[in-house]
Amino acid sequence: MPAWVGATLRPELGDATEEIIAAVQAGVPEYARPLEGRFGRRITEGVTVAMNQFVDLLGVDASPGDLRVYRALGQLEHREGRTLAALQSAYQVGTRTAWRRIGAGPAAGTLPPDVIFALAEALFTYVEQLGAASVAGWAYEDARNAGSVQTRRHALVELLAREPPAAAAEVERVAAAAGWRLPDRLAALVVEDAVAVAARLPGAIGADLDPVGVALVPVSDRPTPEAAPSDAPGWLDRVQMAVRERPAVLGPVVGWSRVHRSVARAQAAWPLHVTGLLGTAPSNAEPSGLVRSDEHLLALLLAAEPELAADLAERAVAPLRALPAGAATRGEQTLRAWLDAHGDVSAAAAALHVHPQTVRYRLAGLREVFGNALDDPAARLELAIAMRMTHPTPSTGEPS
User: Fold this and answer.
1) What's the gap between Cα 192 and its chain centre?
2) Taking Cα atoms as reference points, which of 294, 244, 237, 261 lies closest to residue 188?
3) d(Cα 263, Cα 157) in Å, to the nearest integer?
4) Confidence tier at 112 by pLDDT (50, 70, 90)
5) Are the C-beta atoms of residues 289 and 243 closer than 8 Å to each other?
6) Fewer CB in 10 Å around end: N or C, the chain?
7) 76 contacts 42 by C-beta, under 8 angstroms
8) Does residue 155 come out as left (phi exceeding 0), alpha (psi in the -120 to 50 range) or beta?
9) Quick one: CA dihedral 213, 219, 224, 229, positive or negative?
């Protein structure tokens, strides 16, 4: 752009502020209101600075300098609960009005065609840069607001997980500040990257706590608005889809005033799941997927008192330690299969791939070392628990 163009157009654009604002108010319904307060100051400043800066840049090899005014306009739109659609329309209306002002003014007759074309391109490119600054301001405000909401939701998850539980009035206050309606029924989901997982579940919130995150999932089997009732997934299916293949533990379903119990239950099961002690993965694979803590209550009970559980198991299976290694292995396999089959010799034999008579023969030998324990209900319960605490040894698959 020739250097003289700016000086030529300054009289045309220098006093165009009121005309541009009037056109914006007439063409954009959201701005059809008095220019009062912060709104009025921002709009007036935006138009004035835009025109003066544009004229200053004509004939100068430089980009727009300070764009804070236009970032602030984007932030203002966000704070007042609007999208950027109205502001973008205002930019378009303002640009067309400014261009008409140039075309109708006396300076237009002095501009060569190539300068007119370059001027149009410069004006529209310039306003695009102002719009980009507003987009950045709106996005910044949105991210800051989202971060603030997540901070409050993090605090809410921590409060609900607290034991003893917080007072109902305090929970309701923090939930309101976090913008979360307390559901009638919910379940705690313990999973890594809980915030991201919660974002995939309608109405859920999450917090990446230490050592593992917690998401609070509303429990409802009502279909989502976009899904037909016949094919809408239930809440548990939605949790499974959100978790995908990552290890996760779901606590029991409770009312929100008892959610700390669901969190505690899921957190207690988490280390057992990730170390493969819930039997959810082959011994040579990483545990993955979703487990429900209420399906592993015995494992949780034993894990709660590990020393006591270990003493019980050691005492229950002590007679096997007196047998030779091979006999002890076969004895443990037989005892496990027989207990799992509730004393059914044929079912135990099928599980071991041996003849029922072989099982009877082995049981006779076990009765010699265990005495009356195999017939005493309490002792058999202890043996069954002990079998659950030890990893099953592979079946020999020996023929009958």
Assistant:
1) 10
2) 261
3) 10
4) confident
5) yes
6) C
7) yes
8) alpha
9) positive
56-89 tens-digit pLDDT: 888 887 777 778 889 988 988 888 877 888 899 9
Identity at 366, one-letter amino acid code:
L
The encoded tokens of residue 317 equal: 């299976």
pLDDT of 286 higher than 90: no
Helix (H, G, I), strand (E, B) or coil at 151: helix
End-to-end CA distance of the chain: 99
DSSP string, 36-47: -HHHHHHHHHHH
Give the pLDDT of residue 222: 52
Instruction: Report phi then psi at 82, rounded to 5.
Output: -110, 155
Question: Which amino acid, residue 178?
Answer: A
Q: Which of 301, 397, 297 is nearest to 354 (CA)?
A: 397
Calculate the alpha carbon distances from 224 to 185, 227, 328, 390 in Å. Answer: 17, 5, 57, 44
Collapse the DSSP code of 207 into the 3-class scheme (helix H, G, I; strand E, B; otherwise coil) and give the result.
strand
Supply φ then ψ for residue 343, to 5 degrees. Answer: 85, 5
Other Cβ atoms closer than 10 A to 311: 11
**Taking the model in full, what pTM does it have?**
0.56
* Domain assignments of the chain as residue spans, ordered by start: 4-144, 183-303, 307-389
CATH code for 4-144?
A: 1.10.490
| Structure confidence by residue, pLDDT tens digits, 318-358 | 888 878 888 888 988 898 899 888 889 999 999 999 999 99
Q: Residue 190: phi, psi to the nearest 5?
A: -95, 120
Q: Where are the alpha helices (DSSP H) in the chain?
A: 4-14, 17-27, 37-57, 68-79, 85-104, 113-161, 168-178, 194-199, 235-243, 259-274, 297-304, 306-321, 325-340, 345-352, 356-370, 377-389
